[in-house]
């Protein structure tokens, strides 16, 4: 028969329990069998922190389970999950100003409110044309974020920019030439659909 842990996992990961916890303002988290309880608590807390600071809400059932599973199984890193939040459609739809964007970066990746000199410098870079991904990488690769990830038992990882040159791609009914496409990726995350998505948008 089923073990007690299997029964526990089935109840703890049920949508009913998730909804019950939310009704009390509690984060249900996601339970994975065979993983040290302290590690599970830390990873769930890390993901809940990102939901709160980036999206201003508790995690949803599927999202919390997805991010926690990726981190527990080392399929993603702290930087990769941070990227997933900051460049999610929900975050983009918040339409943050450059000032609001930088303030959020400080809270998430440095764990504090901005200092005036640093804040002014980052905002000035954005106002003068630096893209948000480049600013994001500056924070995600910081020692402060490394320390935050370490405190939760998570690998920080990194976000790299890969330059891909594609000379000719035949698309019905014509031909499209693409040069010097820059795509971000996390060293611990698989982004197998990026090019497919790009081509879909072009067509």
Walkthrough of the structure:
A two-stranded antiparallel ribbon has the order 1-2. The chain has eleven helices and two strands; from the N terminus they run H-H-H-H-H-H-H-H-H-H-E-E-H. It is α+β, with helices and mostly antiparallel strands and 203 residues long. Helix 3 (37-55) runs parallel beside helix 5 (78-86), helix 7 (98-110) packs across helix 8 (116-127) and helix 7 (98-110) packs parallel to helix 9 (132-140). The chain has helices spanning 4-12, 15-23, 37-55, 61-72, 78-86, 89-92, 98-110, 116-127, 132-140, 143-151, 194-202, and strands at 159-171, 174-186. A hairpin with a 2-residue loop joins strand 1 and strand 2. It is elongated, with a radius of gyration of 20 Å.
User: DSSP strand (E) fraction?
Assistant: 5-15%
* Global mean pLDDT: 85
Q: Number of helix segments? A: 11
Regions with little confidence, pLDDT below 50 for 5+ residues: 166-183, 185-194, 196-203
N- to C-terminal distance:
53 Å
Strand order of the largest sheet: 1-2
| Quaternary organisation of the protein chains | single chain
Q: What's the order of the H and E elements?
A: HHHHHHHHHHEEH
Rg, please?
Answer: 20 Å
- Strands, count: 2
Could you give a short account of the major beta sheet?
Answer: 2 strands, antiparallel
Class per helix and strand makeup: alpha+beta
Percent of residues in helices comes to 55-70%
Short summary:
This protein is α+β, with helices and mostly antiparallel strands and 203 residues long.
Name a few traits of the molecule.
two-stranded antiparallel sheet, alpha+beta, 203 residues, elongated
């Amino acid at each position: 028969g089923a073990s007690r842990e299997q029964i526990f996992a089935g109840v703890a990961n049920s949508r009913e329990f998730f909804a019950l916890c939310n009704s009390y303002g509690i984060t249900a988290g996601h339970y994975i069998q065979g993983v040290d309880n302290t590690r599970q608590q830390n990873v769930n807390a890390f993901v809940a922190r990102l939901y709160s600071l980036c999206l201003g809400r508790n995690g949803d059932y599927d999202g919390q389970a997805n991010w926690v599973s990726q981190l527990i199984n080392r399929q993603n890193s702290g930087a990769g999950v941070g990227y997933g939040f900051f460049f999610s459609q929900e975050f983009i739809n918040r339409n943050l100003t450059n000032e609001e964007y930088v303030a959020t970066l400080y809270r998430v990746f440095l764990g504090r409110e901005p200092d005036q000199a640093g804040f002014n410098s980052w905002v000035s870079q954005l106002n003068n044309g630096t893209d948000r991904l480049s600013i994001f990488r500056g924070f995600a690769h910081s020692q402060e974020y490394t320390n935050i990830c370490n405190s939760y038992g998570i690998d920080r990882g990194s976000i790299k920019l890969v330059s891909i040159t594609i000379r000719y791609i035949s698309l019905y009914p014509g031909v499209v030439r693409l040069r010097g496409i820059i795509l971000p990726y996390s060293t611990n995350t698989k982004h197998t659909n990026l090019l497919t998505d790009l081509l879909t948008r072009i067509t």
